What does this fold into?
Amino acid sequence: MCRVWWMPIALVLIGGTIMAQDESRDGRADALRRTMGQLEPLHKPLGPPRPGDWLAVHREPGQSFDQYIRSRPTVPTSRRRVIYIQPLGDFSDGQRRVVALTAELTEDYFDLPTRMLESLPLSVIPARARRVHPVWKVDQVLTTYVLDELLRPKLPDDAFACIAFTASDLWPGRGWNFVFGQASLRERVGVWSLFRNGDPDAGDDEFRACLRRTAKTGVHELGHMFSILHCVAFECGMNGSNSEAEKDRRPLWLGPQCLAKVCWATGADPVRRYRRLLAFCDAHGLEEEADFYRRSLAALGHPATLPATAPAIGD
It folds into this structure.
C-alpha cells in the first residue's frame, strides 16, 4: 500500500518553497505540453482496476499537468534543492547496495543533488512507535513517528526533502496492515521500506528485483513531496498500489503528465533526464526500463547516446 496524507490542495503551501506559478514561465510549460504529445503514444492508458487494486478501493480524481500547475505545488527553490537519504536500522550488504543505488537513481530521476546521511540505529524508535503485527507476527515501525518526530524536526536547511530507508516493515496506524512507504504532501519528509522487496543477497536476479521494487517506492513517495497526486490516466510510477503484486505491475517510469510535472517543478530537461536514466538502467541490468528510455528518446527525436553538447527541449 502507498499512503499519502490527503488535504485540500490549497493547503499544500510551505513558506519559502513555492515558486511563481506563471504557466508561460520561460515557455517551459508550453514546451512540456509538446513533449507530452510526442511521448503519449508510448504510454499505455491505465485500465480498469482488478479486484483489490488501489483504485478498486480508493476513488481518486487524478491530476492533469495543468491542474498541477494551478495547484501551487511544493517545488525546490534555490535555497532548498537537496534530497537527503536517511538510512534507519540495520541492512545486509545487498540492502545497503540497493539503498546506495536508489539514491543514485533518485538524483537522475529528479535532477536534484542527493546526499546520504549517517545511518541511525533502530533503537531511536521508541516502543510506543513499534508493534508486532497481530496476525503475521512481524515487527513493524510506525511511519508517522518517523515522519513527525524523527525526520521533520531535523530537516536540513538546504533540504527539499528527506527520506528514511529502513529494512523494517512499516505501518501507518489504526486500520492498516502495512505500507510500502508514506510521504507528506507538505512537510517534505517520507519513509519507505525494503522489507517486502525480496532478498538482494540471494543472487543477481533477486538483487535486480529488490532494486526495481525499492526504486519504484522511493521515486513514488518523492513524487508526492512535489505535490504530485496518484496518476489515474496511464500506467505510471505514480499509480497507487494496494499489494505487492500490484506494485510489481506498475512501471518505474512516469507517464507523460507526471513527467511534465517533475520537469516543470525541477527544471529538468526530459532528454538529458532520459539519457541519465538509460545509462543507470543499462549499468544495472534493468532491461525493460532501459528499452523504454531508448524508445522515449527516439520519440523525442534524439539518439540514445549522449553527444558532446545536447540541446534542451525547446531549444
Summary: Confidence is low (pLDDT under 50) at residues 1-24, 307-315. DSSP finds ten helices and nine strands in the chain.
